[in-house]
Each structure stands twice: as structure tokens, then as C-alpha cells.
Design goal:
The protein is an alpha/beta fold and about 280 residues long. It has nine helices and eleven strands. Helix 1 links the parallel strand 1 and strand 2.
């Protein structure tokens, strides 16, 4: 098996059907498998996959176990030399995009994760490679503080707005919405850290793979559409203050604190002591 396409789903039945239809229509010229992990959606997603896509390997979790543990359920079942880990709101334009990524990974065995250029539905380039968070970056991203000048400068640094996003470059972090992963690399370093529920597992995995000597590469030679809509603090109630009470914001900040504790203990970037939680 050359490729395992791993799709994590939680209550996005319509998007899941679209991406499965998309992938099966690509005529990928290498042996591949599709693995869907349903995080206890209870919206008919699992039944839809079983009825319409019987060749897809379906893993049904009894509860919503989050991004890291959910993807790990798929990774443990995967047989491919390479893993393509995607959200349900991804559209892959053609099989050539996948093959271009393969060729680069084959020619560069030191690359552990390759992140394609992600684009919005209107064709504009989406932020998908990042520099590390500063001490208050999550607050700036999730609260009205992000409107302030010093916060804007920190966000621009983090989002790499000074980078043209048309050049291939080694980066600190790649967004987990779509990433090509070398299977042998995660077998060596461990898969996603299951201490994280929704955020930072992708970033921490990039940290860990770099420690193990692998590169994390932003790869603009292929373009993938990501229909992502971020819940911005700028549009929340009470002029943005309501974002502090938002569930997604609370989870984001909670996972950020977990990441900081891991890094402070030496389990994050370039740590010699990280032991992957399996």
C-alpha cells in the first residue's frame, strides 16, 4: 500500500460525502486506501459511509475523542507508506497533486511532513504554515486584543505575512487540516499526542519530528482547497468580549496551556525526553 488517506469526521455528513466522492473520482495511480474515523457524530455519517462507500475502511468511535486521538485511530489502522491526513472540508483538485507530493517525499527522505498550499474557496491563499506562538498569541487570535497594534505585529509574525507563500520553505508548523506524512517518521517519533483535544497536536507533532531529524516543509507546488471558516473574535457578541465564553475559544486556550506545560517540561520543541502517548 502506497497511500492511506485518513479522514476524521465529526457531524459533517455533507462534507464527508463530498470529500469521499472527490477522492474516489481522482483515479489515483498508486495503491491506496481511504480510512474514515467517525467521532460519534450521530448524524448518519457512519451509515452513509457504510451504505454508499463500502470499500472505505470505517472506524466508529463510541465518543468524540477529539482531533489527536481520532486521527491516531486511523493512523494505527493505516497500511500506506505515506499518510494523507485531511479534514472533511478539503477538496483535492486532481491526482497529479498527490503524485507531485509523493515525488517530492520520495526524493527527500528527510522530510517528515509536507504541507500543501491551502486556498480559500475564492482562490485566495490561506494561512497554513506558521511560526511558533508567542506568550499571548492565542489571546490575540481569540479576543478583541488582536485589534491592537502590538498584537497585530505578533499575529503577522505568527502567520508569516512577510512570506510570499509561493516559495518552498522549511517551516516550524504546518496546519493539520491537510498534511502529507511519512509513515516511517511517525513510527519513529510517535503519532499525535492525545493529551490535546482539538488544537496544537499538529503543531506539537511538527516539533517532535524536527527533533527526530525530519524536516517540516511548506510545499506551494500543489494547491488544495480548504473551506474553512474561522470563528473570529471580531464578530462575536458584546464587541468581541463574548469570544471569551465561546466553547471553541475555551478549548483553544486550554490546549495552548497544555502545549506550554509540555514545552516547559522538555516534551516539546527539540526535547530529548519526549515519550509519545499511544
Amino acid at each position: 500500500m502506497t497511500l492511506s488517506i485518513i479522514i476524521l469526521n465529526y457531524k459533517t455528513k455533507h462534507l464527508l460525502r463530498l470529500i469521499l466522492k472527490n477522492v474516489q473520482a481522482l483515479t489515483i495511480p498508486v495503491p491506496y486506501e481511504i480510512i474514515v474515523i467517525d467521532n460519534a457524530s450521530e448524524d448518519g455519517s457512519a451509515e452513509m459511509v457504510a451504505n454508499l462507500y463500502p470499500t472505505v475502511k470505517l472506524i466508529q468511535s463510541r465518543e468524540n475523542v477529539g482531533h489527536a486521538k481520532g486521527n491516531n485511530l486511523g493512523i494505527r489502522q493505516a497500511q500506506g507508506e505515506f499518510l494523507l491526513i485531511v479534514n472533511t472540508d478539503i477538496i483535492i483538485p486532481d491526482a497529479e497533486s498527490i503524485m507531485t507530493a509523493f515525488e517530492y517525499l520520495k526524493q527527500n527522505p528527510d522530510v517528515g511532513i509536507l504541507g500543501p498550499q491551502l486556498r480559500n474557496g475564492d482562490g485566495s491563499i490561506q494561512a497554513s504554515c506558521f511560526r511558533p506562538y508567542g506568550s499571548y498569541t492565542p489571546l490575540y487570535r481569540r479576543t478583541p486584543l488582536g485589534r491592537l497594534g502590538f498584537a497585530q505585529r505578533d499575529l503577522q509574525r505568527h502567520l508569516m505575512t512577510d512570506f510570499d507563500h509561493e516559495s518552498l520553505i522549511d517551516v516550524d508548523w504546518i496546519l493539520g487540516a491537510c498534511m502529507f506524512v511519512r509513515r516511517s517518521a511517525v513510527e519513529k517519533s510517535g503519532a499525535f499526542n492525545e493529551n490535546f483535544f482539538l488544537y496544537f497536536a499538529d503543531f506539537e507533532l511538527c516539533d517532535r519530528l524536527r527533533f527526530y531529524g525530519y524536516r517540516v516543509v511548506y510545499f506551494p507546488d500543489i494547491h488544495i482547497v480548504h473551506y474553512h471558516r474561522r470563528e473570529s473574535a471580531q464578530h462575536s457578541v458584546w464587541g468581541g468580549l463574548g469570544s471569551l465564553l465561546n466553547y471553541v475559544t475555551r478549548v483553544h486556550l486550554k490546549d495552548w496551556l497544555k502545549y506550554k506545560r509540555i514545552a516547559n517540561k522538555g516534551y516539546g520543541t527539540y526535547s530529548k525526553h519526549y515519550i509519545s502517548k499511544q
